[in-house]
Amino acid sequence: MALRSVSIALAGSGGAGVVTAGAALQEAAARAGWHALMSRSAGPQIRGGEAAALLRLAARPVSSHGDAFDILVALDWNNIERFAGEMPLAPGSIVIGDPMQGEPPDSIAGAGARMLAVPMKDIARAVGGRPNMVALGLLAAMIGLPEAAIVAVLGRSLARKGAEVAGASTAALRAGIQAAADLPRMPLPAPSPAASGMRWNITGSEAIAMGALRGGVRFVAAYPITPATDVLESLAAALPGLGGTLVQAEDELASINQIIGASWGGVPALTATSGPGLSLMTESIGLAVAAEVPVVIVDVMRGGPSTGIPTKSEQSDLDIAIHGLHGDAPHLVVAPVSIGDCLFATQWAVALAEALQAPAIVLGDQRLGQARAVIERPGDFVFAARRMVYEGGAEAAAYRRYAITASGVSPMARPGGAGGQYTADGLEHDEAGVPSSRAADHAAQLDKRARKLECHDYGEHWAVIEGEGELALLAWGSSVPPCREALERLREAGKPARLVAMRLLSPAQPEKLARALAGVTRVLVVEQSHSGQFHRYLRGSFDLPGEVRSLHRPGPLPIRPAEVCDAVRGWAMP
Amino acid sequence: MSVAAQKRYTAKDFKSAVKPIWCPGCGDYAVLNALAKALAELGRPPEEIAVVSGIGCSSRIPAYTSVYGFHGVHGRALPLATGLKLARPDLTVIVTGGDGDGFSIGGNHFLHACRRNVDLTYVVMDNQVYGMTKGQASPTTPPDWEGSKLTPEGTGVNPFQPLAIGLAAGANFVARCFSGDPNNMAAILLEGIRHPGFSLIQVLSPCITFRPEQMEWKRVVRTAPVDFTEDAARAARRLMTDDGFNVGKVLYRGSRPAYAHERPARATSLAELEREFSL
């Protein structure tokens, strides 16, 4: 059955508290047994400016937004046009505005939605509260979310602001619920509560941080950058208690080198950044390739190139992540396929980097990172792969750090260990690590570094594969959840299809993809980049069966499930 | 203390069999010897020491030692060493490099390493030239030096003052020595290694290939007329009037505690962290 959900957009000027109200609604729904997703949309302003909380509530897991919003509540109309495109409305949608704030702009008024007016500001003033809490009350009443669930969440979040603020908020909430008496209802499906502890309410950024910590990361270097800072702040809070360290570096050139130093010292290490930072780091990521030092770089992607759109999502760092290093520099690129998968994908990336003594880039993005969703508690994954450490021994004098081995992996000495002394080097070197410009050494070390990644058994984790059919959707990262929803709709419409969500982007796994696509005659590649980077990568490194089409566009507008369905439906069978 | 640590070491124990790529007469040979001598006197076994460097002639030093070494990319030795030392505070970490590596491409890291004050010893072999790329002006080259085809009329840019800038940025130990006096250099290196926090040691190390006039340095340098001060303002005044050839002494010894991470009184577990998200 198609996903029944209620999608809500709550918009207003910065400081109006739409994100606070949206977060309270999301958490209340989550605690009352619903699945709930909330993402934020904000402009570039540091304080002030426009903002929107975008929510989707359902009885089943929701990992991406739908095709349109059922309810839009606007506390005011200031600058709302700047992101009206991110809040598509349908003819059945309901728009609630405050008559004191003037008329809605044409882009909203012309969407064919039902326009309603509630004097939220006046209602709030009458009870000494704020309009955002009135809006929260309206929404709770319209969707049938129990008042007590919201009061409990507000009690927790406002506790430190004192009884007066909490009292005013609750009064405004109740006034909003009363003011909704005549508003249409858009009830949520019945909740599907789970036993305590079985679900988490978590952002993608927090899940990345948890994945890193579960993977054993205990050193993090951090340079602030939107939208990756959330990951770093989560780690900053958690690491000291776990015996780890986070250092704020002077720039991204320092971050990447700090983690190389820490990891070389034996402590699994990670940094998180966004496109501009990744660009700065590329030279030193190449150092980690050549010197064979495991490190993990999380790229929370945003619109590019250059400074681009810092607050909004795009999947356009794929090219630099895969191809951005100079020389032949094999490394790992891993991408989570959902908000919840941010944990698994990051933990796996740490394990792969450690086992293969190579850098791993984790490609998240703002859409996954800054959204909060209810997920099933991730299992306690344990990866067998570990860093192969040189333990010394009788042959200590003959230790060769970069020894040519069948797997390409050679034991890594840890500073402090007697007999393991060597110099790690970005210069090409011989097996002992001594710089060498000999052709034979270069070829042998290039082969070794490539072989490590090629020979590794990535098992089933390289992709998430769902469904059956002659048509396949091929997607990665934050484009996967809308594809998954489209898959469900297509199945119901009697057009079963298959979804291959690629988690391991590099090294390419052409044989595995060929097996996953066996029997497929049509492939629709879905991604969020202007130039179709994923499509081009697939064309260059994989054999795709049958006819191939590409559905791609730049950020910040997400790929919607209906677009995927339309692309499939419009593709007449030959 | 381990048995190994009680062993008496000689300088030979800290040198490798790898033959340096340096030109005959390069000042860096003496720095390598002085470093090996200082490490022997330090008394820690070679495996408990790491030498980290960037790119350039002098940055080749790690492979010529018998300790753990890291020869990284141009200009980034300090952050790599910072990560290493913070992750492994038990190691003695020394950073080596040249004036171009440290003060030009790595200039930002230099400033922040001084102010962060991690317990590192930074040995800069200053020859006022890029030697590995065959003789271009570096940040410490005088503005009228016309020896490079890249800047045939000189750079016209005032030279960088590493010690004054390092002191202003917060270095906790500042010294200058001359490669022509290896015993004095070894003593100062040892003192810098033992001093807590960030120790900055500038070594005037001539490049006789691209700056043959630096052979005159042995006649120009003089032992600094005064002993070290613990007063940063006084040290700054001395450095601002100094012609760069006062060598052989520690100029400043600060008492700022080295950067270290506060550990919380109570450890947490992953399970505790997960409860924050749990419904």
Describe the protein's architecture and organization.
- With 574 residues, chain A is α/β, with parallel strands linked by helices.
- Chain A has four domains: 178 residues, Pyruvate-ferredoxin Oxidoreductase, domain 3; 177 residues, Rossmann fold (3-Layer(aba) Sandwich); 69 residues, no CATH class; 107 residues, Rossmann fold, CATH 3.40.50.920.
- Helix content of chain A is 35%, strand content 21%.
- In chain A, helix 2 links the parallel strand 5 and strand 6.
- In chain A, helix 5 packs antiparallel against helix 6, helix 7 runs parallel beside helix 12 and helix 9 runs parallel beside helix 10.
- Chain B is α/β, with parallel strands linked by helices and 279 residues long.
- Helix content of chain B is 31%, strand content 15%.
- In chain B, helix 2 crosses helix 7, helix 4 packs across helix 5 and helix 6 packs antiparallel against helix 9.
- Chains A and B meet through strand 7, helix 7, helix 9, helix 10 and strand 15 of A and strand 2, helix 3, helix 5 and helix 10 of B.
Characteristics:
heterodimer, A: 574 residues, alpha/beta, Pyruvate-ferredoxin Oxidoreductase, domain 3, Rossmann fold, 4 domains, 18 helices, 21 strands, B: 279 residues, two-stranded parallel sheet, globular
Chart the SSEs and their pairings.
The complex is a heterodimer of chains A (574) and B (279).
Chain A: E1 5-13, H1 18-31, E2 35-42, E3 50-58, E4 69-74, E5 89-97, H2 106-109, E6 114-117, H3 120-127, H4 131-143, H5 147-158, H6 163-179, E7 199-203, H7 204-214, E8 219-222, H8 229-238, E9 245-248, H9 252-264, E10 269-273, H10 275-291, E11 295-301, H11 318-323, E12 332-334, H12 341-356, E13 359-365, H13 366-369, E14 372-376, E15 423-425, H14 439-455, E16 463-467, E17 471-475, H15 480-492, E18 498-502, E19 504-506, H16 510-516, E20 522-527, H17 533-541, E21 547-552, H18 561-569
Parallel strand pairs in A: 1-4, 4-5, 5-6, 8-9, 8-10, 10-11, 11-13, 12-13, 17-18, 17-20, 20-21
Antiparallel strand pairs in A: 1-3, 2-3, 2-14, 7-14, 12-19, 16-18
Helix pairs in contact in A: 1-4, 1-5, 3-4, 3-6, 4-6, 5-6, 7-8, 7-12, 9-10, 15-18
Chain B: H1 3-6, H2 28-42, E1 49-53, E2 68-71, H3 77-87, E3 92-98, H4 99-105, H5 107-116, E4 121-126, H6 162-169, E5 173-178, H7 182-194, E6 199-204, H8 217-220, E7 222-223, H9 232-240, E8 246-247, E9 249-253, H10 270-275
